[in-house]
Amino acid sequence: MTGIQFITDEKGRKTAAVIDLKKHKALWEDIEDVLVSRSRRHEKRIPLDKVKAGLRGMLDSRYDDIKSGRVKPIDGEAFFETLRQREDELLKQCSK
After folding, report:
1. What integer is the mean pLDDT of 70-89?
2. Given a cut of 80, is residue 96 above it in pLDDT?
3. Domain total of the chain
4. How many Å apart are CA 79 and CA 60, to the nearest integer?
């Protein structure tokens, strides 16, 4: 497989891999997801019905805020464009 090199021990057993992230970004993301999942396996779980109830309460509250005029809705596309611009600016600052 191109873009992946294996490091072996003196008996020829694979002990490590060097992955070209430009070629195999999706593969690395899958590996990272597995590692994160395994690291969290002992964390306390929240029942789905409790998560749904919390989300419903938050959404109802936000709807009430918008309907009453306490907050103004914003255009989602405009928000994400602003977010992308901020990210680009931060990346430029980090690369200097």
Report:
1. 93
2. no
3. 2
4. 22
Say yes or no: 81 and 58 in one domain.
yes
Q: Are residues 52 and 86 in the same domain?
A: yes
Residue range 63-72, pLDDT digits in tens? 999 999 999 8
What's this model's pTM, rounded to 2 decimal places? 0.43
Say how far apart CA 30 and CA 47 lie, in whole Å: 25
Residues 35 and 53 in one domain: no
Q: Are residues 35 and 55 in the same domain?
A: no
pLDDT at 1: 72
* 23 in Cβ contact with 2 (< 8 Å): yes
- Quote the domain boundaries for residue 85: 48-94
Closest residue by Cα to residue 21 from 32, 8, 10: 32
In this predicted model, what pLDDT tens digit does every residue of 19-45 receive, in sequence order? Answer: 999 999 999 999 999 999 999 999 999
Smallest CA-to-CA distance from 24 within 39, 51, 4 is with 4
